[in-house]
Amino acid sequence: MTLISKQNAIRFIVPLLSAAMVLGSAGCGAGSSSGADGKTDPKALTQETIQPGTLTIATDNPCYTPWFIDNKPESGQGFESAMAYAVSAKMGFPKDKVRWTRTTYASAIAPGSKQFDMNIQEFTISPERRNAVDFSSEYYKPTLAVLVRGDSKYAQAKSISDLKGAAIGATVASDAYVFAKRRIKDDIKVFDDNVALAQAVDSKQIDALVISTVIAVNMRKTHQVTDGKVVGQLAGSTNENGIGIVLPKGSKLTKAASKAVDELRRDGTVRRLQDRWLKEYTTDVPVIH
């Protein structure tokens, strides 16, 4: 091939390569959920769910007031129900594109595949749990309380040390179990869920239960424990990591869920929802040391 024919060939090949690169770049852009500015495309995000176009949110069964009202998470009534819908709307899922399902607390934070996109049931955030699941940003910092029967000899407990001799229970894998074991006594009995835990106190299988303050007050108000009494909030039990929404490990929705929670905190929505749904369940409960 002569020098002139080589130059002509180069002139022909270079435009072809440039066109191929342009087409390749366009193809890559079409398959991404991010725009040119790197921000997540809400429409693309809705296709990342287990049921494309629908956000599947899980919670416990039953779920309790004031987190949910009348065991109906789909109603939007109750702090976590309202939070779930506020977050989902920020993520591009209106209420009619949200589907609810039920799971236990323990299974939701266990390693493995999940049948939900998000799970909201007072999950406290911890480094250990992050090994198995993802979390959104925190939306509430809970405390723990002790609930007993009104006729229990521990109903007049004034300090944590007064509970040392009690048979105490908590739900399996919960922060209440970890705290009670560390601060009250080593021998803490475990139960699968809150229903079994309340029944154990009511039947005198155990003397006291440790659970979030909000749930403890609700158990008393709804007579899940006969003549129940909330002895007090446990000093030092505020979880500074807070509670967050659980997502499957490596979920493509995690960043968007955290961004939604952060925006709702900044615009005052989180505080307004806390004041509406949680205030009466925390202000009048004494603290025991």
TrEMBL record:
Keyword Signal: yes
InterPro entries per the UniProt record, alphabetical: Solute-binding_3/MltF_N
Annotated signal peptide: 1-30
Keyword Signal: yes
Domain Solute-binding protein family 3/N-terminal: 54-281
Keywords on record: Signal
A family per Pfam: SBP_bac_3
Highest taxon of source: Bacteria
Database matches in PANTHER family: L-CYSTINE-BINDING PROTEIN TCYJ (PTHR35936:SF35), MEMBRANE-BOUND LYTIC MUREIN TRANSGLYCOSYLASE F (PTHR35936)
Name of the protein described by the UniProt record: Amino acid ABC transporter substrate-binding protein
Species per Swiss-Prot/TrEMBL record: Bifidobacterium xylocopae
